[in-house]
Design goal:
single chain
Length: about 100
């Protein structure tokens, strides 16, 4: 008899990691990409850019959000994957 748990062999053991990657990396990345590709890069009647009463264009705002928030989302995904790995190791060790 094998000591491996048949429920976590093959691709099934990767599902928690793929779920976290999809939720924390692919979904936000896809939303930002669609926003970048579909939002306009102009503002009618106002000046563009930052400073002196000007505002960012929607496309530039998407780039700013991606640059500021996406690294935090990636770090959160890595942290959660680490917690999953530690929980699996702890659960396997206690058997």
């Amino acid at each position: 008899m094998s000591s491996r748990n048949p429920a976590f062999t093959g691709t099934r053991r990767w599902w928690p990691y793929l779920g976290v990657a999809g939720l924390f990396w692919a979904l936000p990345g896809g939303v930002l990409l669609v926003g970048y590709l579909t939002l306009p890069d102009y503002i009618s009647g106002r000046c563009e850019g930052i400073g002196f009463g000007c505002t960012l264009t929607p496309k530039d705002g998407t780039v700013l959000v991606a640059a500021l928030l996406y690294p935090l989302v990636v770090a959160a995904g890595l942290l959660i994957m680490g917690v999953i790995a530690m929980a699996k190791a702890w659960r396997h060790r206690s058997r």
